[in-house]
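Protein modeling request. Please complete all fields; requests missing the sequence field cannot be processed.
Requester role: graduate student
Desired output: 3D structure, token encoding
Chains: 1
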Amino acid sequence: MNAGNLLPPERRIVRDIFLAGVEAADPYQAVLACLQFDGGQLSISRERWGHASRRSDDWRRVHLLALGKAAVAMARAALDVIPERLLAEPALAVTDYACIQPVANCQVMGAGHPLPDAAGLGAARQMAGRAEAAQAGELVLLLLSGGGSSMAPLPVDGVTLADKFSATQLLLACGASINEINCVRKHLSQFKGGGLARLAAPAALHTLILSDVIGDDVSAISSGPTAPDPTTFADAIEIARRYGIERRLPPAVLNYLTLGMAGGAPETPKPGAAVFAACEHTLVGGNAVSVAAAEQAALNLGWPARIYSRALRGEARRAARELAAQALSLASAEPGARLALIAGGETTVALGERFGVGGRNQELALAFALAAEELEFNRGWTFLSGGTDGRDGPTDAAGAIVDPSTLAGIRGAGIDPQRALDAHDAYPALRAADALLLTGATGTNVADLQILLLHPE
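Delivered output (457 residues):
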């Protein structure tokens, strides 16, 4: 996608609205607003984006850990508040390779995403060791953001990182939802699904969470390392069966899940477990905040705005067709008027065994362009779908911006857009039409945003 003033006006506007949503998820400001050091005590806001109730104590030492795509900015904010003398040792931040930045008094480690790697395994071991070293009367402060599930792989005994890597690949490709993927991963991990809380007990534990999960379920965000896990081994097996991957799982993975279902391996800690007695969470930001900010940005730019969905889910192509049908209905009811439709959520893509290059946002955008053509839109429109982290799937694009000229650009490059969509190969098709949304890594992660502008030709 061309940069700056080379963009057509509507593309600049839709990008600006998207970036306003990303800015609202600033992890540094979110953490800074929740921490206070006064009178020799650290206090932490308990309220969701508020300050009415605070948690404080005479903690002798603070063990500061940060995990996820926003780990660096969140750690920097905490270190700007917590005196160095209170830290048990320099902070530890584990993040995506693209988000690595140096932070004073903090060890920053890179790890694989969306698939786990050996560096992440080493980082998870370090993080687990620090939590386990915490004592009663001390605080483990975890700064958690999206992406942590793959960045901190600590497999159970008998399951290797390669086994977990293969299982994750199968889950990502089969179309399972993020909650379903996390259910399986929790039951293969010593870290996820409350595992870190188990390691940190009896120290006090508080987690500040920047949510990338629609609905903000703390047990789902980065697979809930400090949250009770309501899911079971039986749930994990059922998910594998439902998507037809049970017999394709690595033998060690299937054996462990089967053993656990039979009661031969320890379950993840459940609600009410003693390990959560001194554990609290504060949600510092999420997709809902970014959706609201995008809506306000559209209004500020002179575009009447309407929320289409605060929980856009399901298969990306289906979501695109449904949005296109709704947009056509609105366009027919209000001919000549301009309107911004805003959505937030996280769709899925069922890849199958053979697929090209792309991501769910690129696929959603390409599918929307094809649906608009099929429905014979008689209005001008511009559509953006992007990940707030700046990375859509295993690509350098956050998503895409499409309009009525996009399909012509793809076909002009000798690419059939429908075939590209069917082959899950949206990236090269959109690149040929100069339709990719390139923001670079944003340092935050609160799922996806979609903005549709309906305007006169």
